[in-house]
Amino acid sequence: MMNPTHVQPKVSMVNTPDYREGYSNSVQIRASLWDIFLMFGTASQSAPDAVTLNIFQGIYLSPQQAKALANLLQQNVVQYEQMFGEIHLEPAAGGGSGVVQ
């Protein structure tokens, strides 16, 4: 009896016409039973006691895809720190992530 082989499909990445790239220094997160919602934006401080978050993109992920993304991000941060040194977070900044609601 032959063992079935598991052939990985060839994956092609193609940018859609509405593809865009942007810079974000703020990510807010909301979670529900069905999905996790990431809101990307830029934070700017106009006064010592005022910060404005300009949200420019929202992305819904399934819980499974969010966990896979978290794992990939962790792997990439470890590799980055191995190459360039430890990343230090400012205590007051909280890493730029929002409260899970």
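Next protein, fold it too.
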Amino acid sequence: MAIDGLDWEWKKHPVIRLDLCAGNYSNGVETLRSVLYAEMRGTAKIYRVKLDIYKYVRRLSQ
């Protein structure tokens, strides 16, 4: 592959998996947001990462 020959620094980055398939989002965006926040909080807790959820709430609501 041509990409292998590029002068590129291949850094590893963390990847998280958010499972949103079990939710019922017919009530609108607010339901999706609450499920997304719950998934983010759970993942952050597992990896012992401090998550300022209100920072994201403010950003998404603008």
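About the second fold: The longest helix spans residues 29-46.
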